[in-house]
Specification:
The structure is a single chain. By secondary structure, the chain is of the alpha+beta class. The chain has three helices and six strands, in the order αββαββββα. Strands 2-1-6-5-4-3 form a six-stranded mixed sheet. The mean pLDDT is 93.
Length: 140
């Protein structure tokens, strides 16, 4: 794929994520995709259905007003990377933390491998430390 295609693929996928329609993700991900989540929080998730059920569905339940936006997107013919933030209100359990009803802003960076026009792997870095502090947890 070319650079512009890969950048648009990310943009369109984030539009789909913001709709919270899990089936909309089928258009952007291979069924045998691998999601490499933050270590000690998620780890590796294998397969699109597992990604939907184990990552996205609980995330949407924890932050029902989930909204994600990229600030920077870079791409070449095989890889796309982006950094940005998502916002939401902590209305459901997240990382075993009961709802705090607090608004959070979560910064992230992602790297996606594109094969045959869809994402096959995703490497994710999330500032969970900041999120936990925004939820009111103390780490002193």
């Amino acid at each position: 794929m070319n650079v512009e295609y890969n950048k648009k693929l990310v943009e369109d996928m984030y539009v789909a994520l913001n709709t919270q329609n899990l089936d909309a993700l089928d258009k952007y991900w291979h069924q045998d995709m691998i999601w490499h989540g933050p270590p000690d929080f998620y780890g590796d998730i294998f397969g699109l259905n597992n990604f939907k059920e184990k990552v996205m569905k609980p995330f949407y339940a924890a932050f029902p007003d989930y909204f994600v936006k990229n600030d920077i997107v870079c791409a070449d013919e095989k890889w796309v990377s982006a950094t940005g933030f998502l916002t939401g209100t902590h209305e459901g359990t997240y990382l075993d933390i009961k709802p705090t009803r607090k608004k959070i802003k979560m910064q992230f960076s992602d790297f996606w491998l594109v094969k045959d026009g869809k994402f096959s792997e995703n490497f994710v870095m999330v500032d969970n430390y900041s999120v936990l502090k925004q939820m009111g947890l103390s780490f002193s």
